[in-house]
Amino acid sequence: MRLVLVGPPGAGKGTQAAVLSEQLGVPHISTGDLFRANIGNATPLGQKAKSYMDAGELVPDEVTNEMVRDRLSDEDAAKGFLLDGYPRNTGQAGVLGEMLAEHGVELTAVLQFDVPEEELVKRMLARGRSDDTEDVIRRRLAVYRSETEPLLAYYQDKIIKIDAVGSIEEISARALEALGARA
Ligand code: B4P
């Protein structure tokens, strides 16, 4: 399985990716987690990413694409993967398409997590990560609508829409069922 998870900030992509990666036996690759690990280790990549993340903006594509290219060339990604938070715009999607073509593979599906905006804001404020302040959340939602939502049309043949309101178990059961139905 080669999956992409798309959804607004706070939709639970990271939460569901952790469950699904375990169930499907493929690595969970989260660009947000990779950036946060680099920030934690004070690497040059982390230093580049931090100001963008703190402002709720996307990290520049060339930085993000190279990081993903490196991660996808690791051995464990050969059996499949679950990409969480990447691609986040059509430019990144084009580069991902090229990377997959180099390996002679295609995406299996794109899971779209659907959650109303009030619920997203509530979840993020409760989480309280450093980029979860009200102003930064509003900016991230605006960036999602302008930059990331066009992916839904870009991937229209691959999209599986999941109602992502409910318990974590209910949502992962919906996702697994939808994937089974497609396999
Ligand atoms: P991410 O790390 O991807 O974070 P996110 O979109 O805010 O959260 P996610 O949807 O994963 O929600 P989660 O499971 O945590 O991005 C952070 C930043 O990194 C971006 O703003 C950007 O700057 C940068 N970045 C990342 N990828 C990039 C890219 N490709 N290009 C450029 N920049 C990039 O869940 C949220 C909360 O809800 C949690 O507290 C969770 O416990 C809770 N929750 C989850 N499921 C729930 C449920 N069913 N019910 C109630 N609460 C739930």
UniProtKB/TrEMBL annotation:
> SUPFAM superfamilies, per this entry?
P-loop containing nucleoside triphosphate hydrolases
Positions contributing to AMP binding: T31, R36, E57, L58, V59, G85, Y86, P87, R88, Q92, R129, R140
Its recorded name reads Adenylate kinase
Specify the species: Saccharopolyspora phatthalungensis
Binding, ATP: G10, A11, G12, K13, G14, T15, R127, G166
Main localization of the protein? cytoplasm
Q: Which domain of life is it from?
A: Bacteria
The similarity annotation says: Belongs to the adenylate kinase family.
Q: Which GO terms describe its molecular function?
A: AMP kinase activity; ATP binding
> Which processes are annotated in GO (biological process)?
AMP salvage
State what this protein does.
Catalyzes the reversible transfer of the terminal phosphate group between ATP and AMP. Plays an important role in cellular energy homeostasis and in adenine nucleotide metabolism.
Signal sequence bounds: none
Its cellular-component GO annotations read: cytoplasm
Quick one: which gene encodes this? adk
Recite the UniProt keywords alphabetically. Answer: ATP-binding, Cytoplasm, Kinase, Nucleotide biosynthesis, Nucleotide-binding, Transferase
| Catalytically driven reaction(s) | AMP + ATP = 2 ADP
Q: List the Gene3D superfamilies.
A: P-loop containing nucleotide triphosphate hydrolases (3.40.50.300)
This protein's pathway: Purine metabolism; AMP biosynthesis via salvage pathway; AMP from ADP: step 1/1
Location in the cell reads: Cytoplasm
Show the segment(s) annotated as NMP.
Answer: 30-59
Quaternary structure, from the entry: Monomer.
Domain note for this entry? Consists of three domains, a large central CORE domain and two small peripheral domains, NMPbind and LID, which undergo movements during catalysis. The LID domain closes over the site of phosphoryl transfer upon ATP binding. Assembling and dissambling the active center during each catalytic cycle provides an effective means to prevent ATP hydrolysis.
What EC number is given for this enzyme? 2.7.4.3
- Name the Pfam families on file: ADK
- Which PANTHER family does this one have? NUCLEOTIDE KINASE (PTHR23359)
First-level EC class: transferase
